[in-house]
Every structure is written in C-alpha cells, then in structure tokens.
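name: query_chain
kind: protein
chains: 1
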Amino acid sequence: MAEFVLESVIGNLNSLVQKELGLLLGFDQDLERLGSLFSTIKATLEDAEEKQFSNRSIKDWLGKLKDAAHILDDIIDECGYETLGLEYQSDKVQCSCLSSFHPKHVVFRYKIVKKMQRISERLKEIASERTGFHLDVMVPERSGVIERPQTTSSLSEPQVYGRKENKKQIVQFLVADASHFEDLSVYPIVGLEDVCCVTDDNFVSILSEKIHHLSDNRRSRSSSEEANSIQLHKVKSLRTHISPYHHKTAKLSTHVLKCYSLRVLHCQPINELSSSIDHLKHLRYLNLSQGEFTTLPESLCKLWNLHILKLDNCYRLQRLPNSLIFLKALQQLSLNGCDSLLSLPPHIRKLTSLTRLTTYFIGYKRGLHLAELGALKLKGDLHIRHMGKVKSIMDAKDANMSSKQLNKLWLSWDRNEESKLQENVKEILEELKPDTQQLECLGVKGYKGVHFPQWMSSPSLKCLTDLKLEDCENCSQLPLLGKLPSLKKLRIDNMIYLKYLYEECYDGGVDFKALESLILVYLPSLIRLSRNDEENIFPQLSSLQIIECPKLLKVSRGFQFLTHLKELSIKSCREVEGLHTALQNMTSLRSLYLRDLPMLEFLPDCFGNLPLLHELTIWKCSKLKCLPTSLSLSSLEWLHIYDCPELEKRCESKTGEDWPKIAHIPHRRIGAQYART
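structure:
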C-alpha cells in the first residue's frame, strides 16, 4: 500500500509546485526537498514491500512512512482548501487571493509553514532509517502502475478478503454482506491493514489507531454516543467512514465531526446535519441519503473539496442552500426521491465540474431556466421537472441536450394550467433531442402536445431499452416504435385517445423484435395492439400487463401470436369476452393474474393446453361462479382466490363442488384460508 500513498502525495506535491502555491505560502524550498526525498524513497519501495513480511522492522518503517505521508497529504490538501475558499469567495466579493494581507490569511500562512517544516523533519528522520535496511533500488522497465507483490497473512479469522478481490466486491461486502455473518465482528483486509469493518460493540476496543478506512456495520447499536462512535477519538487519521442504513440517529456523532482527515463519509439516516460539517474540510464524498432533514446548513457550502454529494430519498428536504453553486469541485449531485424539493439554487451552470445531476427543476426566475444546463457536460441519469415552465424554443435549444452523454432521460410536465397553455410544446420537445447513440432509458410524462417529435421514432435510438410514456393525454398516436432494435420494456399510461399501439404498415420485417415487457394502463380507447393484426410482432414478449383498458379484450384479435408470453396480468377491465380465445394460444404461460373483472362469468376450458402454467390468481371477480373442468388437468403449483364469494364457497375443502378440480394443487389460498397439500 505504501507506494500508492506516495504516488498520491507526489501527485499533490507536483500540483502545488505547478500552481506556485509553495512560493506564495513561503515553503517552496521545502516542496523541492520533499519531492527529491520522495523520489529517493520510492526507488526502494518495491524491495521494502517484498521484505516486510520477513522483516518486522521494515514493516514498521513502512507504517511510519505511510502515516507521515498521510499527514503531509492533509497539509497539502489544507493548502488547496484555503486557496479554493479564497477563490470561491472572490465570486461574491472583490478580494485578492493568497497575496492578501488580511490577518486571517497571514495566520494561516504562518501555521501552514510551521506544519510543513515539522513534517519535513519527520520525513527526513524516516528516510534516514531506511539506510539500515540495505534496500535495493528498483528501476522498473515499464512506466505506469507498479505491480504488487503476492502477500500473505497469519490472520486466523474464518473469512478474509485479499488484494485480488475486485474493489467493488470488497465495498459491497463491507457495507452490506458483512452484517449477515455470525462468526466475525472485525473484518480485516489482507494487505490492507488500515481497512476494517466492525459488526459488534464488544470489539470496538481492539481497533487499531492506524485504521484509515472503517465500515461500521453493527446490527444493533448502544444507546450511548461513546459506544456508537466506535472510539473514533482514537482513530485520528480516519479517511473513510461508512455507516450504512441499518439505524437512524438524530444527528452525526461529535466524534465523527472531529475526524478532520475524512475524505469519505457515508452516514446512516439523520434528522439534522450539524453546522460543524465544514470542519471536515478534506471531504470528497458525502452521502446523506434517507436523511429526514428539511434543510441543510449553509456551512455545507464551505466544503470546497467536495466532489460527490448524495441526497437520495431525503423525502422531507425542501430546499438546498443557495451557496451550493460555489462548490466548484462538485462533480455529482444526486437527488433521487427528494419528493418535497421544488427547486435547485439559481445559476447551477456555475458548478462547472458537475458531470452528474439526477434532477433539474425548471423555474421562471433568472438562473432557473432550462438553458442553465447548456454548458454542463452531464452524463448518466437526468430528470428534468416542470417542463411547462420552459420559456421558449430558444431556451430549450440553449440547453444543448444533444451534447450530453445521458443514459437515462426523464421529462415531466406538471398537471396545471401553465403546462396546458404552453406554446410550441412539440418544437420545445424536438429541441431536447438527446444523444441517440447513448440513450438507454427514456420517460415522458404529462406532455401536452398532439404529436411526438420525430427523434422519438428514430432508428438511431439503437441503445434504447426502456421507454415510458405517461399522461400524454392529447396524443392519439405513439411514435413509430416498432423498428427500435433494442427496446425491451414499454409502458404506456393514460393516453385516452390512443386506439392502436402500432399503426405502421407491414413491410415484411419483424416489429418489436426485442420487446420483453409491455405494460398498458388506462387506455380507454385502445382497440387492438396492432392496427393490421400482423403476425411478425412481439416475438420475444414474455410479460404483459393490461390495466383499465376496457375495449382491448372485447375481442381476441392481436393476441393469437403471443406464444412466448410467460406472465399475463389483467386488472380492472370491464369487457373481457376475448380473453377466452386469447388464452388458448398462450402455451408458454406460467402466471395468470385476473383482478377486478366484474363481467367475467366463466374461464375458458383450455387449462389442459397450458402445460407450463404455474400460478393462477383470481381476485375480486364477483360474477365468476365456477372453475373450468380442465383446471384439474393443469400443472398448477399455486392457486389464489380472493374476494370472490360464490367461487370461494364452491372451492371449500372436501365439500365444495369445485374441490375435485383443485385438490391436486400443492399450494392453495382460498379467501383467508391457506392450505398445502
């Protein structure tokens, strides 16, 4: 591990030199000497790493070197933090940078020079010790990452993770899986002695003071803050603290807020974020997800080094500090599930490093327009809300959506008069065309136009796998989706004028060739899936849900070719005459769910032709009075019947008239009664 620490420190030293901060702060000569010293030490590190397992003194020496390097890294980071702070403040008021003679800045320069001098002396002492180890100078023939030697360990714990494990697997283990094991309470990582996971209060006292990365995964928590803080006052150099979502607490422990070297802080859900959060000036990653706070302190916006801020599922959060736009190092802002949040701080474009923004709220006021997104190089997922507030076509064009590398895009209009009166709505949506080569998921909700834009039908959407169209009430036709080569999931919800899912003329090809899941919800005018009843459609469809589509099942046309369908769910449909014929051809069906079908009087006698049917659920079908005879020939494993009074009576154990038809089914729940054969 030592060479990785040194690589990081050397990189930060070089950054200081390039910015001439050492000259301005008064320790430029110290930087030069440290750079030379580290280069000399680095040349012997490979040999030291190999010999540490047979020579305890070398291992101790490497530990001292790592500790000193971490201290130096904090000092360097503090310099960068102070510089960024002055730079960001200059955006608000005119002030000079490090040349300022403000007493506060003079005191900082004095303190930082003293710290640099002390650590320089300490590193000289450590460097001089290495001469007694007779380490060989390694000159690698390659450039780049140094190969790591094989390591061993005498640890006796029953479960140990080594260096060869993938980093993601280790992190997943620490934050999730570790808490499920009964035989370990402290988890070391072989070769990474400064990484630890704790799952039991009884073991907090054995934690090493040298731990830099800690996962607190205890399943039960003591009522005392002292126990809950895992004696963090002992672990002064902690860089990573992960405390997953097992428990809620009112606020962060004061001991956590005194871990001044923290780079990564993943909190359990809290009710309030302390204004002292700005003491953690080295933070790069802050996860406050599932917190129950309504606001965040302005002091959060002094974390100049912060790269990632996660606020997912903070459902009570109502606003963000306006000063958030001064966190110019911020790269990711995640706001999924923040249902009470109505706006972002104005002028979000000032977050020039931002590459991931999960949610953007459009507003009428200056600094809240859609054009604020124009200069941001966004990628990943983006939900744009309040689309009805887009002022003009030019505002949409200035958002520059086609330049962004988005994988998922969700556009939503509100249900209000503003959205209904929006002019040029189709042209606005046309200008929001994303990079079609990147887009995998697309959602449009509340769109008020009559027609969809051309780009939504483009075959260039070759990566699109998931499409949702909801509350597009004025549209009578869908985009031409049949030729999208990768579309696997399609949901259409509340389009009251839609008659056909697919209206294209048959050209001899296969349409919807990749579609696996289709959900149709509240489509009162929908008559058929395909206007032309073509055969080469939905060849891979395995799951179909039909909810509140009263005309679709009145006739069976369009269902006869769904031979690969495995799951069929029909809810709240009044006319279901066509169900009887449709079921006969669904020979791959494994699950059938029928709910709230008030006109369903009988089921088709075709269950003997459904050899794979595994589960049948019948719920709130009040007119259904009996089961078909062929049910006794089926291979059903599960039968559920709820809120069907007459049918439940006929299925009573041993006495009901339909009991012989279902007696062979292993798992039966009739009404409130569960039985197993």
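note: Residues 590-677 form one domain.
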